[in-house]
Design goal:
Rossmann fold; 11 strands; alpha/beta; eleven-stranded mixed beta sheet
Length: 369
Amino acid sequence: MSGFFSWSGLFSATTRSTYSRHVDDLARRFAEFARAFEVGAPLYARIAERVAREPEVLDLMSVTPETQRVPVLLFASAHHLLLAEPSHPLAGHYPNLDRANPEGDVTDHFVDFVLSRPEPMRDLLATRSTQTNEIGRCNWFLFPMSILNDEIGSLARVDIGSSAGLTLLAPYIGYDVRPGGVIASGSPLTIDCDVRGEPPLPSRAPDVVWSVGVDASPIDVHDDDQVRWLEACVWPDQVERFTRLRSAVALARVHDVHVEKGDAVDDLADAVHRAREHGHPLVTTSWVLNYLSGERRLGFVEALDRIGATTDLSWVIAESPHETPELPGHAGSDELITVITLVTWRRGRRSVNRLATTHPHGHWVNWGA
């Protein structure tokens, strides 16, 4: 009997130590988030500051994979549930839910909301990942696609890490380029882009005759619950992004964008092979390769080199060199900003051309920087 109690005491001490490290680490992350976004996202900053002092809330994230154990996943999970319960007092503090006269303290409401729904919260935290399928990122591809249209003609696109495939809508949306004017003014959805420098200004939307998205966890735009998760990943005080997302989803349903479940490296060659039957194959990646290990990123580049040895091919990279140092053009750079790079294979030779830096959601492009 005494042996049982000794083992039980040891186990409890170990468990308490592990639990303490888990909570302390998360508390630090939420406190850092609160400081970093006090100006840019005051709603989530206030909530993060409170959550950092709430061990019970932090413990909900014990089921979360380490790579996703970040504040925004907790916020997105709560937002996902709140979108289905817009009458809850917490909703009165979320600008995207458009409720007037909020009552009480938002941090009190948030803590009450998540702790009174532990099972659905844990289910989301254990199974979902944050996905920023921002339609504004089409601005990243407008100018390099114009270069390729002028050089080669029609493109067949493979978008890696495509989520719901919203950036595949690039040929169907309008672009308000400042300075430059509106491109494709007849589209039901137009996105803005402030430009510095002198990029090539196309007279029309990109000429893409075929496209496919590849994603490890694709979002079906026809599934309302999956779309609600995309909406939940938008920060509630960024109302314009929330509205634009809904417009993009509606457009994606009309054009029936196609996204397949697949691996970024293992399924790349097959997707490119299918693309080249329709036009010049173009691979695009935007803030997705940072989720791969360095070894897998090297494997991705090697796969494209193998294809490019026998097939003319292009790749538009929109990634941070700091996060993806293995990519062409990123070696020796530690830039945190998003860099747009055009990589081409012509007659077996690879060329790398840095084009621009850009806002993480595509609001501006600094051409030539």
